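Proteins fold reproducibly. Look at a concrete instance:
___
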Amino acid sequence: MQLWLPLFAIVAYLAAAAGFVRVYRRPPCRVNPLWVLGILVCACQGHALSLLVSMQGRDSLNLSIFNMVSVNAWFVACISVFWLWRASMALGGVIICLVNAVVVALPFLFVSEKPFSSNLTPGMWWHILTSIAAWTFISLASLHALLYGWLFRRLKRKQLKDISVTSLVSLERVMMLQAVTGFVLLACALVTGWMFVDDLFAQHLVHKTVLTILAWMALGWMLFSYYIREQRGMTLVIELCAVFVLLLMGYVLSNIVLQFIIQH
C-alpha cells in the first residue's frame, strides 16, 4: 500500500492548519489566506489519491466505515475552499484541516473491508451519492454552528471587537443555507434508499434507518423553528449539533460496532 500518499496529505493538512492559525492571529493585511488555500488544495489532492488506493478492490469497491468517513471529510475540505478565503473564517479552516489530518490516516490504521460490487445499479449510486452529499452539508452546517455559537457567546460578553453583528448574521445565513441543502439531500437519500435498497428495516440496517429518519425530522423541526417561529441564538446550535450526533450514531458508531467489535 502506498503510504506516502496519506503521509503527504497529513503533512499538507497540518501545514494548512498552521497557516490558518497565522491568519487567525494576525490582521488580514499581514497574512494572505489565499496561499494557505493553495496548501489546502494540495492536501485535498493527496487525500483524493489516498482514497483511490484504499477503496480499490479486485472486483469491488471497499466502502468500509473509515473509508466513507474519509470521503465525507474530503468533500467537506473541498467545499470549504470556497469560503475559507475570508480571514474571518480562519478558525474553521484550522478545525477542518486538523480533523482531516486524523481522518485521512484512519483507513490505513484500521484496515477493514466492506466490499460493494463496482457494477452497482444507477439507483444505488444515487443513494450512495446523496447520502454522502447530505453528510457533507450537515457536517459543514454543524461546523458553522459551533463557530457561530463561539462567536455569539463572545460577542454577547463583549469580548469581540473585530466581529460585527452583521458578520454574525451572514454566518448564520450560510449555516442555515447549508442546513436546508442537507435537509433536501437527506430526504433524497431516504427516498432513494426506500426505492433501491432491498429492505431498509433489515436487522443490520434498522438502526441506521431509524436514526436517520429521526435526524431528518429533527433537522426539519429546526428549520421550521428558524423560518416560521423566528428562533435564533444558541438554540439553533444545540439543535443542529443534535442532528449531527444522530447521524453520527446512526452510521459511524453503529458501523464501528458491527465491523470491529461484533465481527471479532
